[in-house]
Design a protein that fits this description.
The chain contains 16 helices and 17 strands. The protein is an alpha+beta fold. It has a six-stranded mixed β-sheet, sandwiched between helices. Strands 4-5-1-9-8 form a five-stranded antiparallel β-sheet, with no helix packed on it. A four-stranded antiparallel β-sheet has the order 3-2-6-7, with no helix packed on it. The longest helix has 22 residues, at 485-506.
Amino acid sequence: MTSSSRQLSYIELRGGKDIECVNLVVADARRPLSPLGGGTFSERFDEPLSFVTDQLSLEARRKTRFFRTTETEIYPIEVQSGSGKQVIKRGKVDITFEVSSQPVSTDPGSLPTATSGGLKPTTEDLIEQCPRFRILVVGKTGAGKSSLIDRVFGTDTAGVANDQPGKAQIGNGLISSQNDRFILHDSQGFEPGEGRNYDIVKSFIEAKKKEPHIKDQLHAVWFCFPVPIIDHGERLLEEGAETFFGEPNEAVRNIPTVVVFTKYDKLVTHMLGKGHPEADIEAEAEQYLQRHCVEPIQRFLKDQDILHVAVSSKPSRLRGLDELTNLTYDRVSKSFTSQPNTISPVPFAAAGAQRVEPKVKIESSINVGKQRYWRALASSANFRGFTMLDCLGVIHADIISVWNFHDPSGYLSSEEFRNLMVNMAAEVDASSGSSPATTNLARSGTFSGRPVPLMAATIVILPFVAGLALVRWVNESYQRLQNMHPKFMAYIVDLTHVLNILFALKGSDGGKKLTRREIKLAFNAYYGSSWMEEVHESIRQFKCTITDHDEIIEKIEKLVLATDREAHVTSVVKEISSVDLHLEQDEEWYT
């Protein structure tokens, strides 16, 4: 069975006044267009992009002061039949593109071949079903919603609807240009003067439950209440909130819901100001939270299954963000996963959207891998006609999609970075303690017995020359190669660990654009550590056949989720803590 698949070789947007950047969206995968000045953006593809009709659009982002819906504008592209140049108008914008046709098999369950359009990442289907994690955040003015959202989702926006009364429109989904994998609905809570908001919130939640498509449904709700300082006469719940939680509430039933007690740091500061010893402050604050926050909420909720957590988004006293992330992800996974041992689009979206908890990223990456390509290690038939580089490429795409760094330049998808990872994985064939086969070191130090580049606040020198000259097996057909699973295992584990280190390096700067320098620092830190050598040695000692795919996957899981993972990440990050990660200019991969 075939359908009409098209090939896109060129696209241009002209007349885009105030447009900051333009992304080509193909089935929710994004590629930036190059700015030419004067409101014109274009891109020519040496290798034409394949797409199916109705999957093509342009996403334009306009310069705005605040984090609002006007930030993003979508231009659907209706492709006419035939090949050649086509032009369409969208208001004052002209879109020009060149297409050709190619039939592609669409039989359910059919395996891709090198002649049928290539390997497709599993994450593309998941993102197509649910492009964004949709969350409703309810809280009065000053509840700390803006800083909470920025911390959990890795943005540094001007604020949630500027956090001013009357500016939040609950029906308007807000999308950040720094993290477009979540969509935020903001509500002003139940403060005095906002009596109607009780009905508005309830009606919105009920309406979203009736949406036919999972991507349009509400995936989670956070109710934000600042920790009250009783000495100052503050209350936990306003009258509207008491009404909402005090009656049987079918609206939030079956929707993952968390009550978030914000501004925990304010409570700690207050208690320190009253002379409480700092050594006892955590225990005393916990008792205060239990008495003045948790118990009142429990009395109102009665038997309603709603979770609660106390958080602080203040940089000097961060607290509870990881617990909030884990609680939300766990509840979302239970609510939106219908079959065991499968990954649902909504938990995948939740894992990708958050930028707090690396373990959630890793677990989601494992679930994605198990769906198809990791199990394909057991049969070369699943990769028939493809080279090793093709096979590693699709696994690479799935893993970086889960981690969801703010990478508008596509550095993690670049040929340079993929080549670095292949070179690293190839060293699993080397004997323990041997030195790298290919180097490009201007100078080196000794770290864990391996020659690696020194990392100073100058150009970061990579341990491999550009390209894959000495890794010839990557261009061989997968079917022709024997005993390849150690290389696959090393690639998956090494890439996961490098991204984990990069995640730790970015820290609270998750909203800033990823740089090649940061990637190089993370790569070198792992490559020069005893951690990588321990991983490779463990894979060398692992004895199995390619048909033992369950054992192979179990081994990969153990390595990427090892109990000492966090200690290793902390250790290697300390080695580069003195490096200036915030240079004004980025640097090239190679000098």
